[in-house]
Fold:
Amino acid sequence: MAINRGAITARATIAAAILAIAVGAYFFANTGNGPKSELGSATNANAQGAADRRATTGVGNPPTLNLSDSQLAAVKVEPVGEHEFPIEKESVGSIDFNEDMTLQVFTPYQGRIISLLAKVGDDVKKGQTLYTIDSPDLLAAESSLIAAAGVLELTTRNLARLKQLYTTRAVSQKDLEQAVSDQQTAEGALRAGRDAVRIFGKTDVEIDAIIAKRLADPTLVIPSPITGRITARNAAPGLFVQPGSAPAPYSVADIDTMWMLANVPETDSPALRIGQQVKVKVTAHPDRVYDGKIVIIASMVDPSTRRVLIRSEVKDPQHKLLSGMFATFVIRTGDPVRSAAVPLDGVVREGDGTMTVWVTADRRRFTKRTVKIGLQHEGYRQILEGLQPGELVATEGAIFLSNMLTIALSQ
Structure:
């Protein structure tokens, strides 16, 4: 059969043209130069955007992002300002009673407890009765007082009678002088008896009543020596107590000031001194700051913890602090410094530990910049290097920008 070479050549030419059209259509569809779906459009746009971003992150070029209007809504831009940062040391401690103002209330004389008039946690005033005891010593002192009053009354009447008799020469001068001496001795004994009873806490009115009624009352009243709060009670009715015999029936603490005890690292101890002001916070009252000052710095370092004990007096006029509360405190160790600062949300910690911010000049194109940070205070981070006051930075949305960059570089 004869081969039609012209027909074969025509078919080959047609097939090649069809293949070229198909390849061109595929290339056209996948390079954005022809019609495509919305999903394809988004994918190609992201790829193109990623390519643009990668083009700005080459060697020697800082990472840069160009944001659309919708993306800008997630970013807040503000100029870098200056703020004061106090030079402070922070540590933790615990609240305790002021032991310099905590007293153990012993009975001044031995006896058995009759009644208890206060319990742990009660707030008491100075002079308020805490407990009473049946005191044989008080009974003996009152009995001596009554006897001395009786002797004085007798010697006074005798002296008056002898004075009348002496005017008629019925008695000798010697007898009169003896009567005067007896009366003066009785007056001294009565004064001593009153003082002896007064030591037990009896007032002059009560002493006069004892003399007038000729009635001794052995009940000894033990008052609170200070205004404060009952912190301990080791007493019960019928218990025999003696002066200075531990434990004391009651302990009272003045809670207008409390102690804060803390162990600070020895490396911080050179910056501390007695009289420095401290700001104290407790977890029970997180919104309140208590004022205090350092009163004692220990003279040695704990060899096991390498820490130094410090004691601060904290003012608590409303009596909100309780012994044993966990506390955090700040000590100002130097004058505040003023420097460039960025809100905390404007600083991003990178995976390698460096700190970065996003800087812009036109509020649309953002460049990542590495900075050196310092102190933190009231929501701001001190910038030591990398920024100058007045530069525009992203104060909110910095993490959003860092995430965008990471996604772009991963494509």
